[in-house]
């Protein structure tokens, strides 16, 4: 049955349409991503106050999963967190006419005519109309209404507050993303991440209207010295999904403390879905498979154990058994089987494998698959066109325009524009964050990058935004150097600005709409929106403190707990310390006796994101348990004053007038070692934390480096 707008709603949209025809000047603030169209109207705007109501159209409150009502409740939580209006009315289901006693945000469905650039209809679009009494968001689907709430929140954040509060300008608008796939990939196989951190990344990305989180969940480090030698089994590898007890694939995940249980992954998917983000899991085979051959060595190629031998009779049944275990975990309609960087001389085996897995996964779950674009020089076989190709290497492994001419659907992950590597890359191949010059002016014509751009050198190898086989784009951050290269927060620092500019380019494109952002506009608003992104605190910001002092104690004789788990840089942590000279501690045993064991001096400060040890003044990342020593030994017979300074790019200590830097060494493909700075959040929850036995004075933590 065709939805008919209520009389009041139809009237408001009719007025907005007429004003649009009159050509009134736009007055909304530029935001990220940019809005497709908005026309201002005369009259007072919409006030945001503690009495603002949020009403969901009762005819659609249970539509979708998440439902429109679910999205409305999350929107209310975000509005409270950004305004501090803790007494904001609870979300109601009803009609617009029944909620006119105070200004109301009204969420409904029924918007039509919303299409991606390729002309395919989408439920991600929305119309909105703003007046003094109502802010109406009319989605083409629940997800469209959700994106409309992101627009409202961003406008609220960017609007200058007056003595009367925040008022959003009156008018009407319409907005639709240019492409269906707008997302990011995180290599969670070569670096361990807790589910809570991954959920926070989803929440952050959603604020900039990204809707895909591709998780690369199995892989290994690559070092030719190990791969081709007898010690290949000690090279780090991981499979992140913890098999159920007694599972036939239990041996695949020996690092139990570095895996996600099914319940944890379900919670992660739900947290992302609540923000409009879908997780696409990737289990990478037949290459990048050292985690499998460590478990079953007979399945590897003899000289390259990170590649599976597809002609071995047990190989494909084993891979199917892995998918049988985890397919029921996944809520997405698609999964990635990776399938990149295999042996080109075995192209027919590779193509047969991809096609067989596509058919098998579809039969078992109804899901379709994606693979990375890979060189497959076969003259007899080809990958089925129902497999989406995620292009990443032009022209070495795939040429997207040629693939689309053959009927393949393409996702753009071209490394020239869209690859990052944790902390650093091989000889500067990839930037620390997405190259802003490339993103804003990297097309052959000097225009900005967009999902239809695969190369900056030859426009004939790019396509149009309207190409029906171009699904969108996914940027990627790899962790080629493993757990010791970065902390999770350092990964966020690389992603933060990158996700925002990527959100603009995958929503609005380049050169398609005249409302798209300029680089100057983006730069003028990004910091404000980054700081305001609701639902998470990846910046580890703390409320304003007098004189920026987080805590200050003259003496600390016993463990103290502060109000903050972690404080993000920049900060200055100062203390005077005299560690105990004891080198052993007594540990009780089960039989009632005890034994003396070596003692490293304990932990001075502890927090969610870091710990500071006495021994070598090492910072520890509690997620990976990796320690980063300062290469300084605290004397036990004198008092030493330590002054720690931190920014997002480095952390260093000043001791006796000399600077010492926390560093890590990165093994670059086994060819050379590369030093890199480390940045740590301040460990601010516990002072005189775990096992510390010494004297601690003049302790202070102050914002600013």
Automatic annotation (TrEMBL):
Residues of the active site: 341 (proton donor)
Span of the signal peptide: 1-27
Reactions catalysed: Hydrolysis of terminal non-reducing N-acetyl-D-hexosamine residues in N-acetyl-beta-D-hexosaminides
Keywords: Glycosidase, Hydrolase, Signal
Superkingdom to which the source organism belongs: Eukaryota
Domain Beta-hexosaminidase bacterial type N-terminal: 32-156
EC number: 3.2.1.52
CDD domains to which the protein is assigned, alphabetical: GH20_DspB_LnbB-like
Family annotation (InterPro entries): Beta_hexosaminidase_sua/sub (IPR025705), GH (IPR017853), GH20_Enzymes (IPR052764), Glyco_hydro_20_cat (IPR015883), Hex-like_dom2 (IPR029018), HEX_bac_N (IPR015882)
GO biological process: carbohydrate metabolic process
Domain Glycoside hydrolase family 20 catalytic as annotated: residue spans: 180-508
One Gene Ontology MF term: beta-N-acetylhexosaminidase activity
Keyword Calcium found: no
A Pfam entry, by short name: Glyco_hydro_20
Family to which the UniProt record says this protein belongs: Belongs to the glycosyl hydrolase 20 family.
PANTHER family: BETA-N-ACETYLHEXOSAMINIDASE, PUTATIVE (AFU_ORTHOLOGUE AFUA_2G00640)-RELATED
Protein name as catalogued: beta-N-acetylhexosaminidase
Natural source organism: Mycena sanguinolenta
